[in-house]
Every structure is written in structure tokens, then in C-alpha cells.
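quick one, two chains, predict together pls
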Amino acid sequence: DAGITQSPRHKVTETGTPVTLRCHQTENHRYMYWYRQDPGHGLRLIHYSYGVKDTDKGEVSDGYSVSRSKTEDFLLTLESATSSQTSVYFCAISEAGGNTGELFFGEGSRLTVL
Amino acid sequence: RKEVEQDPGPFNVPEGATVAFNCTYSNSASQSFFWYRQDCRKEPKLLMSVYSSGNEDGRFTAQLNRASQYISLLIRDSKLSDSATYLCVVIDLSSGTYKYIFGTGTRLKVLA
């Protein structure tokens, strides 16, 4: 299994509080991604990174920010959590650049915003 | 309109049946295509890549039709263990970086 861990795995928080999810990899892969998964919507890309300090928005980036100060860590921050951000968040990594296409996922972080 | 679309199902099929899923994508610049499998409450995992000439891996066959912008997955001789959600994935390279875009997934339930 790819060395990718997410923390925390479960979090319950209140509306308006800041939340940071961490993704840590030991594979030295260039690309890192944050997705959220909701019933009826599948996996939707929030933000992704293609190198240290290089990030870009996905399809549902509003209300989220990210940072990548070193290769192994990609942080997702909800500055002021809302109930609509209750979801399962998956981090994924990829070396990309080829046709293997393998995205390796973390086990997910379940966030509940009350 | 979503960039990658799939019929959410569920597809309920008996053991031993053949089942096919389709997926359509809207970005004609999409370069690479894949099928991922996701078990309930687990992370997605790569099932197979999809090549222009079509490719097979055991009971699984994937096809790509670039002209019509759709991808298909055929599962023969379905097993109970094939019950899962199958996710169509496309790489969007329009920004010059690798964005993996997922369909909503098609749920398969194989019945004994």
C-alpha cells in the first residue's frame, strides 16, 4: 500500500470554526489532491498541488484553502466551517506524467459540521 | 453539465451475468481514462486503465470511443465480490497539469 495517511480520520466541529485536515505521504510523489465525496455527487476535486508551493483549484474550491510547504504534506483548511462542508474528504497522490494513472488514496477523513 | 457522467445505478445482476457500464466525458482534450473501484466506506482503487485499442484484464474489458467521447467497462461472469461502485476517471490536461476528474460512480450489486 502507498504510504499516505490522513489526519484526523474523524472530526466533529461547529459551524464557524476553522478546521485543518492533513495529508502526509512517504512516496515522494509530485502530485497531491484533495477530494470530497458526497452521496449523489461522487468524488469532486477541491484543490490539488503539482509541487511544493504550486497549487490550483478544482471544481469545488470555494470555502477551502490549501498549502504545501514540503513535498510530503498537503493541508486542507476550512477557514470557517459550514454545514454544507460535512463530507468525507479523501487525499490522493500520484506521480502523474504517464499513462499508469494510478491515484493512491488515503483512507478518508469524515468531517461533520454541526 | 458534469465533465464526466455515469449512470448511478444501482445495477442488480445475478451471479454469472455479464454487465456493462458506460461513461461519457465532455472535454475532448481529455488524455487518459481509467476505471476505479470503490467498496463501501473505503477509498477508491485503480481497477484498470483504458486504452484506445481496448484492453482486457481477466473478466474485465475496457473500451474507449474517442469520437463519441465515451468509455465502457464490461464485466463477464459476475462474482459476488464484484459488488462495489465503479468510478470512471478522466485526466484533464487543459491547464497543463494533471487533474483527475471522477464520474459520480455506478453501483453494482451482484446477487446470489
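The two ends of chain A are 34 Å apart (CA to CA).
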